[in-house]
TrEMBL record:
Name of this protein: Isoprenylcysteine carboxylmethyltransferase family protein
Origin superkingdom: Bacteria
Glycosyltransferase is among the record's keywords: no
TM region(s), chain numbering: 21-43, 49-74, 122-143
Membrane topology designation: Multi-pass membrane protein
Organism annotation: Brumimicrobium aurantiacum
Subcellular localization, as worded in the UniProt entry: Endomembrane system
GO CC terms of this entry: endomembrane system
Keywords assigned: Membrane, Transmembrane, Transmembrane helix
Record carries keyword Transmembrane: yes
Length: 174
């Protein structure tokens, strides 16, 4: 856990355009790997070895995917423009962000990523992809989140502590 905490470094860049560009490049790479390559491989594995893919409501899946993608892009924009950093630990925000989607969830990008993964699983009718997304949520919740929150407490102190008490991880604050 200690070496994981060393990943969190505030960005040194002051150029908001460059921060936003890096954020969208990082987001694109994550999407390609975790919402494209891995689900595609799981779908191929599932259909090859189990010979079935159930047929869910693809319209609902597309709506969910677009909604969660919009949440991710808007969250990334807010993090970059107001937090003056990227969502990645190696180039993280220098200001605490508690507006926009961050007012509703402590990590709307995690919520959106898991939602996107589930939407892909529903679209393709893949139980394996849905389980993969849920496993991603569990990994984030039990391994990444504690390290991230420790870093945020160290950097932002009482401001983050108050924010943490007022805003939930998974359940939206209305």
């Amino acid at each position: 856990m200690n070496s994981f905490n060393k990943l969190f470094k505030p960005t040194k860049s002051k150029n908001k355009f460059w921060i936003l560009l890096k954020t969208y490049l990082q987001t694109s790479i994550f999407w390609i790997i975790f919402l494209g390559i891995v689900p595609f491989g799981l779908i191929q594995f599932e259909s090859e070895f189990f010979g079935f893919i159930f047929s869910p409501q693809k319209i609902i899946a597309v709506f969910l995917f677009i909604s969660f993608s919009s949440l991710a892009l808007y969250s990334a924009y807010i993090m970059s423009s107001k937090g003056e950093g990227t969502p990645l630990p190696m180039d993280c925000a220098v200001k605490l962000v508690s507006i926009g989607p961050y007012r509703i969830w402590r990590n709307p990008m995690a919520v959106s990523g898991i939602g996107q993964g589930i939407a892909i699983g529903v679209y393709y009718g893949s139980v394996f992809v849905i389980v993969y997304a849920i496993c991603g949520a569990l990994l984030w919740h039990f391994f990444v989140r504690p390290a991230e929150e420790k870093d945020l407490l160290n950097r932002f102190g009482k401001s983050y502590e108050s924010y943490q008490k007022a805003t939930k991880n998974w359940i939206p604050r209305i």
